[in-house]
Amino acid sequence: MIQDKILSLKKEKNAIILAHYYTIPEVQDIADFVGDSLALAQKVSHTDADIILFAGVHFMAETAKILNPDKKVLIPDMDAGCSLADSCPANEFADFLKKYPEHTVLSYINCSAAVKTLSDIIVTSGNALKIVNTLPKDEKIVFAPDRNLGAYINYQTGREMVLWDGACHVHYQLTAERVFAIKPQHHDAKVIAHPEC
């Protein structure tokens, strides 16, 4: 059985398997940890594994490597991408930043390692608003790669951060029109939205 072979090889190689929530149940079933990308990368830092197999997209494996530089990090599919991370190619972002030399660069953690190196501060969706609020009100800021998360922060803070024009194609499809269309069918339902929407 394939599952037994994977678990045997995992033990032989002193590996740990991380599976993002987005992976299929069969992958989650053999994973040591299932969760969101940052929590998984952080959790594995506290293990003695030599190899991290990250069942997720490319930027997630990069984040795991950044937080675990002494471990070998593998990803099952090197082409496993994220539309948000892919919407911000590092070379184009570097050119974009040349127009804003006096700006502090904040990047959402769901970006490539190359974009992270161009950034001054890396934020999560959970702490981005708090971090922006710690910066002086007159601080000039570029926010990348998610324009929706950036717009949410601008709206909440009254700031005018310069926003890179990137987005997750799935979150971008979740429009107010779609919510308004389905809400009458479930009038008592609460609407919960991620700031990437």
> CATH superfamily name of the largest domain?
NadA-like
Number of E-type strands: 8
Which architecture of the largest domain does the CATH hierarchy give at level 2?
3-Layer(aba) Sandwich
How many DSSP H or I helices? 11
What percentage of the residues does DSSP assign to strands (E)? 15-25%
Alpha-carbon Rg, integer: 19 Å
Q: Helices and strands, in N-to-C order?
A: HEHEHEHEHHEHEHEHEHH
Strand order of the largest sheet: 2-1-3-4
Low-confidence stretches: none
Secondary structural class:
alpha/beta
| Number of individual domains | 2
- Measured as a percent range, the helix fraction is 40-55%
Give the N-terminus to C-terminus distance in angstroms: 41 Å
Question: What is the global morphology?
Answer: globular
Q: Can you tell me the CATH topology of the largest domain?
A: Rossmann fold
- How many strands, what sense, and barrel or not for the largest sheet? 4 strands, parallel
Q: Class of the largest domain, according to the CATH hierarchy?
A: Alpha Beta
- The chain-level mean pLDDT equals 92
Protein described:
The chain has about 200 residues and is α/β, with parallel strands linked by helices. It folds into two domains: about 1-75, Rossmann fold (3-Layer(aba) Sandwich); about 85-170, 3-Layer(aba) Sandwich (Rossmann fold), CATH 3.40.50. It has helices at about 1-10, 25-30, 35-45, 60-65, 85, 90-95, 115, 130-135, 145-155, 170-175, 175-180; strands spanning about 15-20, 35, 50-55, 70-75, 105-110, 120-125, 140-145, 160-165. The strands form two sheets. The protein has a four-stranded parallel sheet with strand order 2-1-3-4, sandwiched between helices. Helix 3 runs parallel beside helix 4. The longest helix has 11 residues, at about 1-10. The radius of gyration is 19 Å and the shape is globular.
